[in-house]
Amino acid sequence: MKFNSIIGRYLSKQIVFTFLMVLLTIMGIIMMFDSIEALRRISGREDTGMDYVFKYALTKLPETIDKVLPFVMMVAAMITFWRVSKSNEYVIIRSSGVSVWGFLKPVLITVFAVGVINVALINPISSKMYEMHATLKYRFVTRDPTAMLFSSKGLWIREAEGNDKILVVQAKSLHQESNDVLSMKDISILEMDQNSQILRRIDGLLGELSKRNFKLRGVHIFQTGKKTQTLPSYEYKTSITLQRIKENFVDPDAISFWELPDTIRFYQSSGFRASRHIMRYLSLWASPFLLVAMVLISAIFSLTPSVRQGGVMFMIVAGITTGFMVYFSSQLIYAFGINGYIPIWLAVWSPAAIVMLLGVTFMLIKEER
Hints:
Blueprint: H1 6-42, H2 50-86, H3 89-95, H4 100-142, E1 155-161, E2 165-176, E3 181-192, E4 198-210, E5 213-223, E6 229-237, H5 242-247, H6 260-269, H7 275-302, H8 312-338, H9 344-368
Antiparallel strand pairs: 1-2, 2-3, 3-4, 4-5, 5-6
Helix pairs in contact: 1-2, 1-4, 2-4, 2-7, 2-8, 4-7, 6-7, 7-8, 7-9, 8-9
């Protein structure tokens, strides 16, 4: 069956419409539970109102949807296939000489296109909302409505120094010289009080972090009410360590698909591992194929010549169980990849490939019956 045929366009519209309906329903349920969680968080807080509840639930939504999207597509495909089976449209289409693969072709192409749109267009928006959600939670904890959670380009790190001083360190480029020495260029150190008011700023052209000590060169020190100091070198004691910097790298979910390659190159050129970022980048590449695989799995359980054969409850339970098995097994394989037990590319692509091969195999067996 051609994708642009009348039946092909009809099936494509059916899967897209059902997918949007299921997605909106799931979004509404997720927002309801997140709103309840936000209401619980603000209980007893006079400095936070309902606007926080709305922003909290809205900005957290993309993070949750990203995790459940394969399930949403699977449920949408099961509903679509069940409808065409119930109305005997599947029987009529097959009787006209169309094979099961000809029937599935327009659906699979449409689902793959939805996956590409999600990665190329929706993901950049979701990553920004993910970062907004992290900033919102940070402002809630610090009780500062203007506080910023630094997590953009280059290196940003925030660290408390005692009970009355906060450091914010930024560097445009960095490189790990050895196990305990980190070299940086264009480094800035901001000293702030608990109210996020700047006390002093120290800029250096070059710097090294070694054993809780910043060794800066080409230094300018700015302080309110005092003359700017220019020094050839300066040593700054700190509690920041190399391990602390590694832990504060940007969360991969807060970086869009288009920005991940530059971020990965930045971290690798700095001498750090970027396994989580590589895993995220490859996962986005594999996501359209995983959606297609989930549709094939749903076709096994819900694409039957006639619903009068019964087994609707079995179809629902078997489909949902299979979806959960795919999810948990993929997370287990991802964990192996992150920890270096298996190659990252294998950890990312194997779940989609295995599920797709299983779907094709069972559909071939079903076609021969």
